[in-house]
Structure of MFS transporter:
Amino acid sequence: MTSLTADQGGAQAASPANRPLNRNDYKTLGLSALGGTLEFYDFVVFVFFANVLGSLFFPASMPDWMRQLQTLGIFAAGYLARPIGGILIAHFGDILGRKQMFTLSVFLMAVPTLVIGLLPTYESIGLAAPILLLAMRVLQGAAIGGEMPGAWVFVAEHAPAKRYGFAIGSLTSGITGGIFLGSIIGVWLNSVYSTAEIHDWAWRIPFILGGVFGLVSVYLRKFLHETPIFQEMQARKQVDRELPLKTILRDHREASVVVALMTWILSTAVVVVILFTPSYLQKVFHIAPAVALKANAVATVTLTIGCVFWGWLSDQWGTRAAMVLGWGGMAVTAYLFYLNLPGTEISLVWTYALVGFFVGAISLLPVVGVRAFPPEVRFTGLSFSYNMAYAVFGGLTPMLVSVWQQADVMAPAHYVAAMGVLGVAMGFWPLAVKGWVAKK
């Protein structure tokens, strides 16, 4: 049985561990990253147009705060659906194959996104409008729950061992690029169309574009091949016939805890530094929205670059060194950024970009998580642990930081730094560094 240890992470069964990435590797990585970018764009674009959706899909007589709450509730439903979708898609991914489920997750994201762009509003069909919007959001959540773990496993099982971290880091950078793409589309739409035009019809453009490009990605993924490790398991008839989740809960609880804790770090870094901070800058330090969003866009770019760098560094120096330097750097630069607010526009952009680069160490989660489980239940183990933890920590973090912030304006810095320290500590956890190894 092939296992992904620290020295064998992601190696193809029939390929030398130290071979360079070849043309097929780059095709697999490119198509996987493209699909991940478009799928993550489809998932987050909802939040960029939440105010418009709230005004269109709920009664005009409803108070603004209630309408906003209802809209954010529908947005949150996508997060709550992640564990269910992730577990189901991963279950069949461990039994039927990675490729089929990898393609299905994109399809389940593209179709609801396209439908949202075509939905009639409350004015046309009444209460059915928000109900349909909620249903599409739940399907989106189920899809994203299977996409990220599926993409990580798929690419890891294709990549040669010595390029394992770089391949996963590059894929993760493509996924985070979906946030940047959604932000750019939002800025473009608000620059080209008036508020009235966006409210009337232009809000549909980003959803229709996302749906169409997602369907194109479904087509392109047909050119991908099943992973060598899954093919090897099939040849040896070692595909797990027991319910994979049962095996995870019985035999791989330590690995599940490792992935859950690292997901806590990832969700804190992304939610607080990238998603929460722009509004924090505006409300607490009265920084102009345009300046805050500009700095955020730069930080998102450095985050994307950082994902590749920290994955590459794990290949060159080892996972422990990458975790200590990456997450230790995140803890330090979090204080450098938040303690120097508001500062000047230049200092704001520079320090935000710097902490964004170290947030890119989130790519170490899949580097560790994929190899923490044996191939037979790898997809299920990673998906279950990641999605359950993200549903909890991703949902609670904004509320926790908001409440904490009332007592201490530096709450975001303390929280992010604490997660950085946790990440450094996890660099000394043997399973996190060495991965799963078959018992002799």
